[in-house]
Amino acid sequence: MTEKDLIYRVERQVATITINRAAMRNAITPEAVELFHAALDQAQADADARVVCITGAGDKAFCSGADLGGGMQDDEVDRRGHFDSYARLISRLADFSKPTVARVNGHCLAGGTGFMLACDIVVAKASAQFGTPEVNVGLFPMMIGALIFRNVPRKKAMEMILLGQRLTAVQALSMGLVTRVVPDADFDAEVDRVLADLAAKSPIGLTLGKTAFAAAEQMPLAEAVRFLGRQLAAVAGTQDAREGITAFLEKRPPQFKGE
To answer: Where are the beta strands (DSSP E) in 132-236?
Structure first.
């Protein structure tokens, strides 16, 4: 595994993290997970990165899950360390303060489902297939189950997990695994539109909002509403909010600076 197997680049205020192992269906090794952590460090620190896009190289697979030859055969202590690192990664991605988009350019299977579901928005090719086939090799989709059950009705989730069968993009959309399915020919243009739209928003407003929602998610309703009211007051006090309101009244596009 080399750094070229995971590519990080920033363009037009979008940080793109690409799993660059097309020949291996973008299967993830333990080393790739560590590189992924480092890429998120870069995206978090880079003020020019307003949005994070996760994708895979080529047009066949977004991510096919763990490389079964890369760390799965290690001893129990090493395996536990690898799995802990992956668990921290999808948890970190799910709580990331900047907007995240999964560009599902091909099949998304097994551990790749964790990367996909941890993102805020999931745009999938119509030809992509989805599934958790771990049971077919004597394994079970453990860590990603926490994300599956936060996005999919329980019985549909269990059917997918226990049967280990592949789903079409339309089935994935109906279950809540993805947010939109796009014809293959229109896929890149649609992803670009979504990313550009997000990059044009107030970065501080989105960050404060995402962080507030994450904190409020486990609160009782009355406590959550009070907390979010205070957070709205904080957002309203930003320069971006003042710029946004002024631009609205002046009927012009706002110029957000992230302040």
So the answer is: 167-168, 180-182
176 and 120 Cβ atoms separated by less than 8 Å: no
Is residue 257 domain-resident?
A: no
CA-CA-CA-CA torsion sign (208, 173, 165, 68): negative
Same domain, 43 and 150: yes
137 and 243 inside one domain? no
* Residues with active-site annotation: 134
Which amino acid, residue 113?
A: T
Identity of the residue numbered 102: A
Domain check: are 9 and 50 in the same one? yes
For the entire predicted model, the pTM comes to: 0.93
**Residue found under tokens 């994300």:** 147
pLDDT one-digit tens code per residue, 232-249? 999 999 999 999 999 999
Bridge-based pairing state of the strands 107-109 and 129-131: parallel
